[in-house]
Amino acid sequence: MSKLALHGGSPIRRGRAWPRWPQYDDATEQELLAALRSRRWAISWPSDGTKARERRFAEEFARYNGAPFSSVSITAQVPSSCRLRRLTSAQATK
């Protein structure tokens, strides 16, 4: 078994640069600028009559995955606590 580079083994990226990150194209850059210039920072932010980017993303993400719906959150903790609450309430009603 070969050793990790940390323990004296051969590094696997010797002579090769790491890929540039983040990777994006002009369309992604334009969407980022549009989000920045919209000054709308949350789904709950007052609407200018357009659908929030978060809602648009959730709808597209659900469609891409063949799911009936999707939701977005800023951290993994929020959906995890929602699932836990749902499970706890389901157990309480049994």
Kindly describe this structure:
The mean pLDDT is 82. By secondary structure, the chain is mostly helical. It has a domain of 46 residues. The radius of gyration is 21 Å and the shape is flat. It is 45% helix and 0% strand. It has 3 helices and no strands.
Structural features:
94 residues; mainly alpha; 3 helices; 45% helix; flat
Please outline the helices and strands.
Blueprint: H1 26-38, H2 53-65, H3 77-92
- Strand fraction equals under 5%
> How many strands in all?
0
Radius of gyration: 21 Å
Report the major sheet.
none
In terms of structural class, how would the helical and strand content be classed?
mainly alpha
Write the H/E string, N to C: HHH
| Number of distinct helices | 3
Helix content: 40-55%
Q: Give the terminus-to-terminus CA distance.
A: 52 Å
Low-confidence stretches: none
Which whole number gives the mean pLDDT?
Answer: 82
User: What is the approximate shape?
Assistant: flat
Question: Can you give me a brief rundown of this structure?
Answer:
This protein is mainly α and 94 residues long.
